[in-house]
């Protein structure tokens, strides 16, 4: 069963211990290792919600986490000997990562060895040459068997089959390995038995135990009474791990007192391990031990070589060579990313975890001690979580509108000489947060529209920008509704929500609405949305859609009656045509001209004042009744006009003014031919009666003069029935604002209460 001990590691920087489990090697797929949820104090639902996952230290994934149950199971069979060789303990390290919030838990699974390998001799037949003079108790080194298992499952002891001459003893090396020593128990006699054969068996400590065998053949040599002797029984040397091939490791030396072929020594490496044979070679004549391949401190730190010296007579001896591999800073640190948040909200507060990573250096000592830092000035920093575990966190607030993404380069450097370093670049993209309101390009937009312009015409375009991205930068435009009860100027125009195009909703009359303002709003698509406001000022451009309007003479009268005395000189003011135009500017500038007249040369009209004056002195030849048509025209394009008709009577005096005016009014409606016939009739009647009425006229004139003097004395002041100074402005028409009627001329007409139709008084205009 798996044994778990775990303490929670929080990314906020608190210290943590490693959870430790164990599982036998070569366990089947799906084999239960431990229940992570139980050890973490979480439920399966919490593991699933927080997306728990297993991140291995190395690339290969041997373990799998069931997010529903929290069980950690075997995903792929693991061979301890393949993963760790002879190293013990054999650990498979990994991390359990949880999100929301981001947490990391370290754990390791120890692979317990099973007895799946039997001891194996490299050579199935071992040949020893022993002189017959060898005394009992002499020891001989035998080739060792190899068992890749460890612990009790490794090779434990040797035994040999029954024979008369030899015993075997199991010895232990300094690295824990066991080898066999053959001990001569009884003196040999070549003449009696030239060769002794037996089987050696290597047995491990597994249950059940496994074993391997080899045949040992001992050839009894003729007497050679001196064996080679090494200068040292143990050679200790150190070799740098980056030493090239054929580098001399050590020179062993042995001597033999015998002469001739019995004194010639041959050196060889005893095959105690296949690895030694692949790594070292020896010159059989000189004893120089050289490298067959470069050494790697990270793979193996110590080698133990058995060297044998054999003379020509077959006698041999052996010594040991211990090779210590010295570490060289030949491995750069490695940055291993265990968790990375590639997208980060720009609203993330300082100390937000962006990535978790480990730094590993296979070297040892100072060569394996590492430090981490960041290159460049960026809003991130590195926090140490454990001995070789780090977290990349934010050091300050972020702003996507200034920098959208960061290439964060993590650099790890060791303390070797020369120092080696490695870098890994992490791409961190910032997610936009709606932290910027739209901004109008102008605080006040002024647009023009013509009056009477059809609905739907484009008046212009609003423009607002938002530095955010995506929906947060999508700007929509709208009108801000005015308070209840105010002029609904918002009903005059509309704003396209997407493009900001302003269009009019209906034609406007400049004379009613000359300009108006509305408030426009630009809102983004964020949640909650942010907005900005601007003022839209619409100016209505005047069009010449109003013709001049006559104030005097009134347009509803057929013809206005004016009296001009026969004695009127040139420039005499007859009347003033007054007109106004509701338009503005040039469209309201009025000009007057005489369109038609009975006597074209008798009258003239002021171009800008509208005053009708005599162009010359009135003569007796001039017709008593004059008809004038005055044309009033504005300066619009196209121009608009109106006409005023004036009936002018040329009189000697004003005694029958009202009668003639009334008559003129009636006669003005008849054709010109009828007027001339009536005038002829009056002349004939006058000639016939002139004599008879002459005396009567003198009497009437005298009586009339006396009566007029008496009536004037009795009349009250004429103010109640006359126009005062303010009467012209009291009719509710403000003509002063248009500039077309000047108060320079006012007319005063008074009628006495007793005059009736018998008297009309004509007065000159009152000049300012």
From TrEMBL:
<feature type="domain" description="Cadherin">
    <location>
        <begin position="122"/>
        <end position="230"/>
    </location>
</feature>
<keyword id="KW-0130">Cell adhesion</keyword>
<keyword id="KW-0325">Glycoprotein</keyword>
<keyword id="KW-0472">Membrane</keyword>
<dbReference type="GO" id="GO:0005509">
    <property type="term" value="F:calcium ion binding"/>
</dbReference>
<dbReference type="GO" id="GO:0007156">
    <property type="term" value="P:homophilic cell adhesion via plasma membrane adhesion molecules"/>
</dbReference>
<feature type="domain" description="Cadherin">
    <location>
        <begin position="441"/>
        <end position="550"/>
    </location>
</feature>
<dbReference type="InterPro" id="IPR050174">
    <property type="entry name" value="Protocadherin/Cadherin-CA"/>
</dbReference>
<keyword id="KW-0732">Signal</keyword>
<dbReference type="InterPro" id="IPR020894">
    <property type="entry name" value="Cadherin_CS"/>
</dbReference>
<comment type="function">
    <text>Potential calcium-dependent cell-adhesion protein. May be involved in the establishment and maintenance of specific neuronal connections in the brain.</text>
</comment>
<feature type="domain" description="Cadherin">
    <location>
        <begin position="15"/>
        <end position="121"/>
    </location>
</feature>
<feature type="domain" description="Cadherin">
    <location>
        <begin position="336"/>
        <end position="440"/>
    </location>
</feature>
<feature type="transmembrane region" description="Helical">
    <location>
        <begin position="679"/>
        <end position="702"/>
    </location>
</feature>
<protein>
    <submittedName>
        <fullName>PCDBG protein</fullName>
    </submittedName>
</protein>
<dbReference type="Pfam" id="PF08266">
    <property type="entry name" value="Cadherin_2"/>
</dbReference>
<dbReference type="InterPro" id="IPR013164">
    <property type="entry name" value="Cadherin_N"/>
</dbReference>
<feature type="signal peptide">
    <location>
        <begin position="1"/>
        <end position="18"/>
    </location>
</feature>
<feature type="domain" description="Cadherin">
    <location>
        <begin position="231"/>
        <end position="335"/>
    </location>
</feature>
<dbReference type="Pfam" id="PF16492">
    <property type="entry name" value="Cadherin_C_2"/>
</dbReference>
<dbReference type="InterPro" id="IPR002126">
    <property type="entry name" value="Cadherin-like_dom"/>
</dbReference>
<feature type="domain" description="Cadherin">
    <location>
        <begin position="564"/>
        <end position="673"/>
    </location>
</feature>
<keyword id="KW-0106">Calcium</keyword>
<keyword id="KW-1133">Transmembrane helix</keyword>
<dbReference type="Pfam" id="PF00028">
    <property type="entry name" value="Cadherin"/>
</dbReference>
<keyword id="KW-0677">Repeat</keyword>
<keyword id="KW-0812">Transmembrane</keyword>
<dbReference type="GO" id="GO:0005886">
    <property type="term" value="C:plasma membrane"/>
</dbReference>
<dbReference type="InterPro" id="IPR032455">
    <property type="entry name" value="Cadherin_C"/>
</dbReference>
<dbReference type="InterPro" id="IPR015919">
    <property type="entry name" value="Cadherin-like_sf"/>
</dbReference>
